[in-house]
Amino acid sequence: MRGVAVAAIALTSVMSMAACAKDNGGNSAGSGSTGTEGGCKLSEKPPAAAAANTTSSAAGQKVDGSSLKVGLAYDIGGRGDASFNDSAAAGLDKAKAELGIKPENIRELTAAPNEAEDAKLTRLRQLASEGFSPIITVGFAYAESLKTVAPEFPNVKFAIVDGTVEGATNVTPLVFAEEQGSFLAGVIAAYQSKNCHIGFVGGVETPLIGKFEAGYEQGAKAAAPDIKIEEKYLTPAGDFSGFQDPTKGQVAAQGQIESGADVLYHAAGASGKGVFSAAKAANAKAIGVDSDQYNQATVAESKDVIVSSMLKRVDVAVYDYVEAVAKNDLSSLPKVFDLKVDGVGYATSGGKIDEELKAVLEGYKAQIIEGKITVSDKPSS
């Protein structure tokens, strides 16, 4: 009998070791499961999403944009920020390639950190006076300038990413459901965390960046109700340097890691480079934003810690807007670029999102699209 008991104990030990070996460093996607190194007690998985309709429609008529002169006014950071502006640049590059826009008919200008409003006015007037139309402004910081400049040039078509300009009929808003994409980022963080403790780093404390925090918090708590969440903004509203200060991003991320967070999500523009650096130094994990940051050359040294990115498809919005102008049909644009039109989403580059977790994410995505989950655009605190 004693021998049987010893054998049973040994078998139990082997089974436990096998379970540990199966753990991939976070939580499994199973209902209510807990990672072997701590992890979160996970909520029941959402119902599986219905299979996508793979029937493709016939290709539309090729759109000719060769006569357009396109101006792009970037927010601070411009091309190379590995985030928001680079996504807009990708949309412009696609328009150039697919719509036949001539290189000499494209002008790109970039804002300086904390510049005076006059600088934005001058930039927009310069583009409009030189015959550029459409002119796409990247970021809500251009809203005030457009209130002045758009009426001065009623025949010029303007667009603003992340903003609206009331009463200006020649300004098209390109807005997103950032909170919906960030909800999925929160689910990813909950499933990837060993400590059931995660962090959020925002660039500037504004209502827009609050949408990222709100969705992230709601998604994480939907997946793991007991999860602990750190949050930190780099600068207060009005000080836009928080989007262009990797050192501040790194210090903020280090503080959250020291408090126990092991998965960090940023909505901080170029400052996110510092968040990635801190995560890499501490063997933590990170979630990028706007672009698929795993594939961004400017953060390549940290790519191994990037488990996903919340995709805010500014590239899609910019391309679709330029194409709509070329077709002279702005009515084809969605009112909001949300999950339903793939205006936001999540990246799977790097192989950190396995099929089990992807099924969970698609389940939550379907519930949001169907209206069974309403994602708040305001943080709870």
Structural account:
One of its GO terms (cellular component) is plasma membrane. Residues 27-38 have a biased composition (Gly residues). It comes from Saccharothrix coeruleofusca. It is found in: Cell membrane. Belongs to the BMP lipoprotein family. The protein is 38% helix and 15% strand. The protein is α/β, with parallel strands linked by helices and 381 residues long. Among the domains are: 70-174, 3-Layer(aba) Sandwich (Rossmann fold), CATH 3.40.50; 178-312 and 351-369, Rossmann fold (3-Layer(aba) Sandwich). A six-stranded mixed β-sheet has the order 7-6-8-9-10-11, sandwiched between helices. Strand 8 (263-267), helix 8 and strand 9 form a beta-alpha-beta unit. Helix 2 runs parallel beside helix 9, helix 3 packs parallel to helix 4 (143-152) and helix 5 (178-192) packs antiparallel against helix 10 (355-369). The longest helix is centred in the N-terminal third of the chain and has 21 residues, at 2-22. It is globular and about 60 Å long.
